Amino acid sequence: MSSDRPRFEFVMVPDSTDARSFIELSSHAADLVQAREALELAVKSREEIGSPLESVRDALIAAAAMAYCRTFFPSNVRRPVTDFITLPEALRATHELVRAFRNRTIAHSQSDLSVTYAVAVLDAQTLEVRDVGAPSIGSTMPPERVRDFLELVTTAQDLLDNAIEPIRDRLMTEMAAADRAALVRRGVRPMVREALAAEFDPSTTRPSYPTSHPVYLSPMVAD
């Protein structure tokens, strides 16, 4: 006999030092997942001839560098991931390479991995000037370095998972002793704040223990 009752109830873990640490470290883990998935797609783009991913390979590697390096730069809402994990010495060179790539090529345009030339187009017979253009040429990480980068991210993920696990265990114990029925009755769940697309605001700062998040809605346009 089927039932329409939900199989699970979701409630927020009460605010505590452990809850905030769990959020902080899990936020880093989400960035590392984003970096790993982008790198895996970049690797896949070379393994499949004619892959539609080939045209976005450079963008995938750039996105991975930004996501990975977010975890190592301190911000107003979380500490660097290096406060919780220590990378193996064998991967330090790759870490520094990715950091330099992000700083000098992706986040800022300084390295000669991205150059723009001033080029005149001349008629081959008369040498008459036909046009002047500015082609931009970009070079991304070679495949060997992408694989090293993927190993770095995967290792950082494993180390971070090990750091998160004891916190998760303590929160499980805490929730087992809590008045869970009361939490369900009170509806202690994350809330969605709806707003119009015109109100989109990326300058906000999230709290250490969030209780809501915005969703921006676009108005329906009649045909």
Give your account of this protein's structure.
- The protein contains five helices and six strands.
- The chain is of the alpha+beta class.
- The strands form three sheets. The protein has a two-stranded antiparallel ribbon. Strands 2-3 form a two-stranded antiparallel ribbon.
- A hairpin with a 6-residue loop joins strand 2 and strand 3.
- The longest helix has 35 residues, at 143-177.
- The protein starts with 16 loop residues before the first helix and ends in a 6-residue tail after the last strand.
- 16% of the residues are buried.
- The mean pLDDT is 92.
Keywords:
5 helices; two-stranded antiparallel sheet; 6 strands; elongated; alpha+beta; single chain; 223 residues; 46% helix
| Alpha carbon gyration radius | 24 Å
Oligomer: single chain
Taking pLDDT < 50 over at least 5 consecutive residues as the criterion, the unreliable ranges are: none
Assign the structural class, choosing from mainly alpha, mainly beta, alpha/beta, alpha+beta, or little secondary structure: alpha+beta
Q: What is the global morphology?
A: elongated
How far do the termini sit from each other?
45 Å
Can you summarize the main beta sheet? 2 strands, antiparallel
Average pLDDT, to the nearest integer? 92
Share of helix, binned: 40-55%
Q: List the secondary-structure elements in sequence, H or E.
A: HHHEEEEHHEE
Q: What strand line-up does the widest sheet have?
A: 1-4
Q: What is the tally of beta strands? A: 6
* Beta-strand content: 5-15%
Q: How many helix segments?
A: 5
